Amino acid sequence: MSAETMLASDFATLSDLVRAHATERPAKPALICGSTILSYVELDRLMDRSAAALQRDGVRAGEAVAIVGSNSIEVALAFLGALRAGCVAAPLAPSSTPEQLAAMVADCGAPILFYDAAHADLAVEAQRVALDRLSGWLAPDGTRPEPVHVSPDDPFNIIYSSGTTGVPKGIVQPHAMRWAHISRASAGFGDAVTMVATPLYSNTTLVSFLPTLAWGGTGVLTGKFDARTFLTLSQEHRATHAMLVPVQYQRIMALPDFDRFDLSSYRLKTCTSAPFSAALKADIVARWPGLLVEYYGMTEGGGTTLLVCNAHPDKLHTVGQPIEGHDIRLIDDEGVEVAPGESGEVVGRSPAMMSGYHGRVDATDAATWHDSQGNRFIRHGDIGRFDEDGFLILMDRKKDLIISGGFNIYPSDLESVLAEHPGVADCAVVGVPSEQWGEAPVGFFAGPGETDEILDWFNHRVGKTQRLAALEKLDELPRSEIGKVLKRALRDAYLA
User: Fold this and answer.
1) Which residues, listed in sequence order, are joined to residue 196 by a DSSP beta bridge?
2) Whole-angstrom distance, CA of residue 311 vs CA of residue 333
3) What's 469's DSSP letter?
4) Nearest-angstrom CA–CA distance, 488 and 44
5) pLDDT at position 482, please?
6) Which of helix, strand or coil describes residue 309?
7) CB-based contacts of 379: which residues, under 8 Å, 6+ apart?
8) How far apart are CA 470 and CA 481, in angstroms?
9) Would you place residue 165 in the very low, low, confident or very high pLDDT band (cuts 50, 70, 90)?
10) What digits encode the pLDDT tens for the residues 102-135?
């Protein structure tokens, strides 16, 4: 079956689409990383060898394949090879602590772990394959795996939420959810050159990277983000598409020589994952060729809104309107839909929804809302309201979620760690604006301990993305009459 026929069908797998592109356009570049260029036929053969090696080593269809490493051809191959074997890709954040990584590998039950040099000492109960020795692990050239059947409800990947204690929640995304992301893309991705400048363990990346391969485009994998390097590579490869988080846009647009780069090849730039200021959107629209589109949604799925910034200069303070086929509503604390014009918690429903949190039925239930017809919606945890034109305005994050550099940080997780220190009697963590990261976590505590010592102690116990930017000592934390810490008061006092 041709790629065109599959893309026009009700469901197809990414693995089959790559195979079709390898037949129809074998020499077309599929992945570029540094000086390495993989054509579609080369990628297809390597996926075969990776899938066959997984089967050789006893990894069965439906089992998780854990991967920890920075963006590289090898990480992409481990991910895509797992899919061809009918396995569930479980990419993990390299910035997590060794304890977190071990807990996530155990939670998803992965019988195998692909790891980079920075995690060579990671202790896990799984077969280990070094990514820098992947070529020696692969099945011999020309080997084909045993074919597997994949249905839309089968799990595609598990994305782990941020966490510093216990086991972060594993968000199970089915093939149907990824197919929804692929099918809503356009044929314009067929000749796309997509800059992949966010990590492959992030859903932000995958919603752009996977459709690029599914439609037969080219993905350019970059290493640790640097604004000038990004622009240099964009110019060199004549990039047409990019998905970036707001802090990356901020750093790019702040470059004094931004305007000297030739970005005329760009057709579409997208953004998600964190608050995106209207002023920054306007600057990008004015100085960077191509459309700028903001998406608002969740890794868990639910509803997604879309804002074409170029077409709606008067709506840049919003996150746009629900895309076709997505149902977004607002509810109050009792789960009742609010009246038009009123604010409420955002809940959403669409073809792109997680199956649930892996092994966490209670957490899945807590994230779910049903309407009067019994339809399942996912709670976004944000407070918003629709304006008179149906554009969604986000008011606040109901659960005090901190988004730093595009990554979710939950204050309660950080507070649990901070409370373990003997010098901390009471504590709270809030997010404050950061020019570098968009937001940064700041801690407050009451107790006999010394601030500098506690801050150093804490930051050595959490992942890099969860480290406190500052810690302040108070006589006591402000609380409401019912004992709730007044986090807004803490944030306002700190900013003042």
Assistant:
1) 221
2) 35
3) S
4) 52
5) 46
6) coil
7) 302, 345, 346, 347, 366, 367, 368, 369
8) 27
9) very low
10) 999 999 999 999 999 999 999 999 999 999 999 9
